[in-house]
Amino acid sequence: MDFFEDVGxxxxxxxxxxxxxxxxxxxxxxxxxxxxxxxxxMEEEESFEDSGNKIVRMAETEAQQxxxxxxxxxxxxxxxxxxxxxxxxxxxxxxxxxxxxxxxERQNRHPEQREWRRRLVGSVDRLKDTF
Length: 131
Description:
This protein is mainly alpha-helical.
């Protein structure tokens, strides 16, 4: 979580939404890698191995496949939303004295965070659909 302490300057430049978008893109890439590790994508296995992508091995057992889904679900349901809350709290510090502005910022941010979370869940759903 040290990363989130380092993004304070980005937030002060109003780049919090772009930081969330970057987190989503990284998570989506992670889910794509997990999908390629499932046996259901065997038709892609040859191209997967030829690509030199040795980061993820094929999840051959049911326990390994469930672990992939559990990891992605935990990230989307718990860890990444906590990170987003941390980003939000870092963003609120400059406005401690201005309650009106802080309330307005928070209200504008909630729809953005709900949409972001919906997109995270959509990525996990793509992984579930591959099972």
